[in-house]
Design goal:
single chain, Rhomboid-like fold, two-stranded antiparallel sheet, membrane, Peptidase_S54_rhomboid_dom, transmembrane, serine-type endopeptidase activity, Rhomboid-related protein 2-like isoform X1
């Protein structure tokens, strides 16, 4: 009798505690106690509460994950922690889930969490064995996959982009399909140089000779043949001396191929082609009596785009003390900048020499292609060669960059038509 009375008393107290659970948590909670514990065991109410909570997540939280661009619908743990401190968002979530998310964010600083992962935690469907702020394969799967790619490649990525995006970049760094665009461009340049050199009796110079350099050459840009519109693009196939060819080949293979593997061929092709076009149009706009050859416009466009991305991400790059010092030095920013300067200084010096100091008997070549390529790379780089998870047209900056380039192209075309200070056209 005593045990029955005791059990009845404890059961009554336990039911009272459960029914007062909502009051203990406070009225600020967006979900009442009946959403978690129902005396009648009504599962329909629980299901309705889940539907309402899912709608709340879609309306109020999903835009936040789309706003913080870390590659797809992701948000950094420290950003999510800051959001959870705001009553506007905190009060829309169950209090126990707020505490769980806060703890997970505190223990996973420096990582990012996906929206899908976030919803599973809030709805109580999160697997304790899965990772928080990891990749799609889970923590152990990611570590296993990363084990195959750790080394120089991982150090290159961590010294190129934000630490939050390193895992995504490594998974995207594939050679299928192969980087055919930059390789085909390079092969075409070498073949054209060899063919035209053979037509000149294999005579060539390291610095100043252009193979088959005359007005009948259908590739070179000439101010007096501006009506042949293809010359504004085809000039990249010719080079003034094999030294100029070697420099451009180095930039295209050493820098262009890895960027093409990472960002896919069409992104790099847009930047490269618009760099070539900006170079020739800039030449026609600023240097009316001088021709143009070389792939400096395209090469400098991808170089400028890459350098701008490195500069923008400089505060988020890898500072992991466990990385090998040798790898960090070989793949770090200082050495990259040094190598780029080593390539840039002699190439720009040669361009200046060939434009202003070359013997008048030879054909002088303009340098506007380099400047036009740099401007094109700076304009298009942040939209096309920065985030692999978003298409350029998904952001206003990408559309604005492309629109700016098109405005420049249209303006220079109109200038070429109406300006009267160009040399007389040669039609025969």
């Amino acid at each position: 009798m005593f045990w029955s009375f005791t059990s009845y008393t404890m059961g009554s107290r336990w039911r009272d505690m459960l029914m007062d659970y909502g009051n203990v948590l406070g009225d600020k909670s967006s979900r009442s106690s009946s959403a978690y514990f129902s005396v009648n065991g009504d599962l329909m109410d629980k299901r309705n509460e889940d539907v309402q909570l899912r709608q709340t997540l879609e309306v109020f939280f999903r835009p936040l994950f789309q706003k913080f661009v870390y590659g797809g619908e992701k948000i950094a743990c420290h950003d999510l922690r800051s959001i959870l401190r705001e009553p506007e968002y905190r009060d829309r979530l169950p209090p126990d889930k707020v505490h769980e998310l806060a703890d997970l964010c505190d223990f996973n600083q420096g990582r990012a969490v996906k929206y899908e992962e976030f919803t599973k935690i809030v709805l109580g469907k999160h697997d304790d064995n899965s990772s928080f702020g990891g990749s799609d394969t889970g923590l152990h799967g990611a570590d296993r996959d990363m084990g195959r790619t750790k080394g120089v490649l991982r150090v290159v990525c961590t010294n190129t982009t934000q630490q939050l995006m390193v895992d995504d970049y490594l998974f995207e760094y594939k050679c299928l399909p192969p980087p055919f665009f930059m390789i085909l461009v390079t092969i075409a340049q070498i073949i054209v140089y060899i063919v035209f050199t053979s037509q000149d009796g294999w005579y060539t110079s390291a610095l100043d000779s252009i193979p088959n350099a005359n007005h009948t050459n259908v590739l070179m840009y000439y101010p007096n043949r501006r009506h042949e519109a293809w010359r504004y693009v085809s000039y990249w196939l010719l080079h003034q001396g094999f030294i100029d060819l070697i420099f451009n080949v180095i930039i295209q293979l050493v820098l262009g191929v890895p960027l093409e593997i990472m960002f896919k061929w069409w992104r790099l092709a847009i930047v490269w082609i618009l760099g070539v076009l900006a170079g020739s149009l800039g030449q026609s706009l600023t240097d009316h009596y001088v021709g143009l050859v070389g792939a400096g416009g395209g090469a400098y466009a991808i170089m400028a785009a890459h350098c701008l991305t490195l500069w923008q991400e400089r505060q988020h790059l890898n500072d992991d003390p466990t990385e090998s010092r040798t790898k960090k030095i070989l793949c770090g920013l200082p050495l990259r900048v040094t190598l780029l300067v080593i390539i840039l200084i002699p190439q720009i010096a040669l361009a200046v020499y060939r434009r202003w100091f070359l013997d008048p008997i030879n054909i002088r070549i303009g340098i506007a292609a380099h400047i036009g390529g740099i401007l094109a790379g700076i304009t298009l780089g942040p939209a096309y060669l920065k985030d692999i998870k978003r298409y350029p047209w998904q952001e206003g900056s990408g559309l604005f960059s492309l629109f700016t380039c098109l405005i420049f192209i249209g303006g220079t075309v109109i200038f070429n038509i109406i300006y009267k200070g160009y040399p007389a056209e040669v039609y025969n």
